[in-house]
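Troubleshooting: if your tokenizer reports a length mismatch, compare against these two reference records.
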Amino acid sequence: MHCSNTQICVGLNMTKSEYRKLYKEKRSNISGCEKKRMDQNICTNLQMLSWDAVNYVHVYLPIEKFNEPDILPFVDYLRECHKNIKLVISKSNFESHAMENYIWEDDSVLQLNKWGILEPTQGELIHSNLIDIVLVPLLVVDEKGNRVGYGKGFYDRFLSDCSAQIKKIGISYFEPVTEIDDVGEWDVPLDCLVTGYGIYNFIDKEIE
């Protein structure tokens, strides 16, 4: 994966909880016009990565009420230009905090769960160790690839169950911060971050 040398931003170090509160507010305050512009840039930057030898890509369905980055135009790009790639989406179990992974077909039926998250109702289950790349929604990440999500641990459990060779690409509106103070041994760092400003490489793994 060839990434740009965009400057990593420097700031005060905080805990995950402090960063979560700050960046949830920052993201909620992004205007509709600015969000649309950054979404377009994120999707363009994702297209700059190499997808030729990839078989399974785990993507997320953006949660509108959380103002998450909209990667659906990039999903359309994969469907049109990389027809060999199988897209994977998840259904969350809020009791176990586990994620079940399904192939996302053109005719897959999706519905909102009681938390307002769009999920598949049924389909072909796929084991997480078959997935080559996962696009991870998040609030902010530090310069070592440690991420701040919503604090429920869904992605940490999911990524821990994936192959050691999986490429973990974070998606955020914000540039990396210097350091998260309270990273735990169970936290799974990212390989790369894609924002509207550029692509940041944390671990030297090629998409090949």
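Reference record two:
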Amino acid sequence: MTILGIDPGFAIVGFGVLEAQGPRARLLACGAVTTPAGEPLPARLRQIADDLDSLLEQFRPDAMAVEELFFNNNVTTGIGVAQARGVILLCAERAGVPIFEYSPSQVKQAVAGYGKAEKRQVMEMTRRLLNLKAVPKPDDAADAVAIALCHARSSTSRLSILDSARPGSGRYAVRRER
């Protein structure tokens, strides 16, 4: 299964592409889509859409894992991130790629084994689990790789297999076949 992990943002969108088979996963690519700070938001959103369409075309993922929106204190930034996240979800939907959403604590739990792990712990476990020489850079790319790894680990767990057998159940947003 090829998984595209996305750490949404409007200045920087991190991405990580994993090939996962059972409990094993390997990193195929990672990086970041960046948009110029001086550009109007609609132009930045279009660039995100264009670049995401290219990633979806290039890697043809079986699933896209996206981090759920997390608001800290800056609502203005959160609104921009929410708009970018909407564009990202639309791109996946148009490409027919199933979308799975994870909270930051779900990512931490799946990767580091503790839902309140520190960022550096998650990054180090991501590096170890994928047998990488270094943590992916920039941080947004490392976060996206961790999100993809979360999906790889969650989608192969016995609980998710049992859960998916029950219609209408599960904690994921599941795309319906048309």
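Descriptive notes for reference record two:
- Residues 2-164 form a domain with the Nucleotidyltransferase; domain 5 fold (CATH 3.30.420.10).
- The helical segments are 41-59, 75-95, 104-112, 119-129, 139-155, 158-164.
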